[in-house]
Design a protein that fits this description.
By secondary structure, the protein is α+β, with helices and mostly antiparallel strands. It contains 8 helices and 20 strands. The protein folds into 3 domains: about 60 residues, 2-Layer Sandwich (Uridine Diphospho-n-acetylenolpyruvylglucosamine Reductase, domain 2); about 110 residues, 2-Layer Sandwich (Uridine Diphospho-n-acetylenolpyruvylglucosamine Reductase, domain 3); about 100 residues, UDP-N-acetylenolpyruvoylglucosamine reductase, C-terminal domain (Uridine Diphospho-n-acetylenolpyruvylglucosamine Reductase, domain 1, Alpha-Beta Complex), CATH 3.90.78.10. It is globular, with a radius of gyration of 20 Å. The protein is about 25% helix and about 30% strand.
Length: about 325
C-alpha cells in the first residue's frame, strides 16, 4: 500500500488528484490478502479509469484491478464461452475475439476501459449490450473473501444498469467475466451509421471484422482519444421519457431522433438534445463540450474535476428548462 499517489495517470479525464492510499492486485490470492486492510477504509476498485470523474482528492484507497488472462471455457458446434480477467483491456479483448472469428462483441469495439466494468454498466453500443452475450461473472464478496458466480438472471441488467450498481453496490469485486459468442456469427448492422460506414468502406457482405472496423472508424471520427484529450466517453445517459414528452419536443423539432423503449416510452439522444441547446464545441477555460460529439465533456488540461462537474450541471439544468428532460450522468462522480 503506497501513500499520497497522484491519480492523474489512472483516470481518463487526466484530473490531478491524490489518493491517500494506493494499491494493485494481480490475482485472486492477492485480492483476498488485501481485503482485511480494505475493510477498514473507504476504497475504490478501478481498471481503466474510464468512467470516473474526481472532483476532489480521494481520502480512501484507490486499488487497481490487474487480473488478466483469457481462456476458452466451453465450445459447441455453434458457440464458444470465453472468459477474460477483469483487468484485461476491453478493446484488446474484443479484437482478440474478432480475430478468432467469435461473433457478438464486434459492435462494442473501441469502448474504453477494462473487462470488469462491462457487466457493471451493461455497456452497449450500436444495437448490442453486454446482456446479449453475457454468460457469467465471477466476483469476490468483500465481507467474506468468498468467490461467487453470477449468471444472467442474477445481474438485473438494464440500460447502463446492473445489480452491481444498486442492490450489491460496494459488496463485490469482479474478477473475471465470461461471454457466450457465436462461431457462425450474424452481423448486426441495424444502426444506419454502420451501414453507411460499410458502404464507404466498399463492403457488401460484411464479416464481424468489417463491422468491428466500421465501429472503430465511426468512434474515432466522433470521439477524442483520452490519451490526447481528457474525457470519459459519453458523459450522459440517453434519457428514456414518456411518448408525450417526445410529442411536445416534436412540436418544435420535427426531426428529433427517438427509439422505442417499451411501455409507452421512448429513448432520446442526449447528444442531440445538448447540441440543439447550443453546447456543442463550447469551451470554458480548461473544460468544454467536444466539437464533434456533444455527449462528450472534455478536459484540455490544468483544470479540475469540479469544473467538469459544474459544466455538466449547467447542461443538465439547461436541457431540463428547454426540453423538459432530465439528463442523468453516466460517469461516476467522486
Amino acid at each position: 500500500m503506497q501513500e499520497g499517489v497522484s491519480l492523474k495517470p489512472y483516470n481518463t479525464f487526466g484530473i490531478d488528484v491524490k489518493a491517500r492510499h494506493f494499491a494493485a492486485f494481480h490475482s485472486l490470492q492477492e485480492l483476498q490478502d488485501l481485503l482485511p486492510t480494505l475493510r477498514n477504509m473507504p476504497f475504490l476498485i478501478s481498471g481503466g479509469g474510464s468512467n470516473m470523474l474526481f472532483t476532489q482528492d480521494f481520502e480512501g484507497a484507490f486499488v487497481l484491478n490487474r487480473m488478466v488472462g483469457i481462456q476458452e471455457v466451453l465450445r459447441t458446434e455453434e458457440e464458444v464461452v470465453i472468459s477474460a480477467g477483469a483487468g484485461e483491456n476491453w478493446h484488446q479483448f474484443v479484437q482478440h475475439s474478432v480475430s478468432l472469428g467469435y461473433g457478438g462483441l464486434e459492435n462494442l469495439s473501441l469502448i474504453p476501459g477494462c473487462v470488469g466494468a462491462s457487466p457493471m454498466q451493461n455497456i452497449g453500443a450500436y444495437g448490442v449490450e453486454i446482456k446479449d452475450v453475457f454468460e457469467y461473472v465471477d466476483a469476490v464478496e468483500i465481507s467474506t473473501g468468498t468467490l461467487r458466480r453470477f449468471h444472467l438472471e442474477d445481474c438485473a441488467f438494464g440500460y447502463r444498469e446492473s445489480v452491481f450498481k444498486h442492490q450489491l453496490k460496494n459488496q463485490y469485486i469482479i474478477c473475471s467475466v465470461a461471454f457466450r459468442l457465436s462461431l457462425n456469427p450474424k452481423v448486426n448492422t441495424s444502426y444506419g451509421v454502420i451501414e453507411a460506414e460499410l458502404e464507404r468502406m466498399s463492403v457488401i457482405n460484411p464479416s464481424i471484422k468489417d463491422v468491428s472496423q466500421a465501429v472503430i472508424n465511426i468512434r474515432k471520427s466522433k470521439l477524442p482519444d483520452p490519451a490526447v484529450l481528457g474525457n470519459a466517453g459519453s458523459f450522459f445517459k440517453n434519457p428514456v421519457v414518456p411518448e408525450a414528452v417526445l410529442d411536445k419536443i416534436r412540436s418544435t423539432y420535427e426531426k428529433v431522433p427517438s427509439y422505442p423503449a417499451g411501455e409507452g416510452n421512448v429513448k432520446l439522444a442526449a447528444g442531440w438534445l445538448i447540441e440543439q441547446a447550443g453546447w456543442k464545441g463550447k469551451r470554458f477555460g480548461a473544460v468544454g463540450v467536444h466539437e464533434l460529439q456533444a455527449l462528450v465533456l472534455v478536459h484540455y488540461g490544468g483544470g479540475t474535476g469540479k469544473e467538469v462537474y459544474d459544466l455538466s450541471q449547467a447542461i443538465i439544468e439547461d436541457i431540463q428548462q428547454k426540453f423538459g428532460v432530465i439528463l442523468e450522468r453516466e460517469v461516476n462522480i467522486y
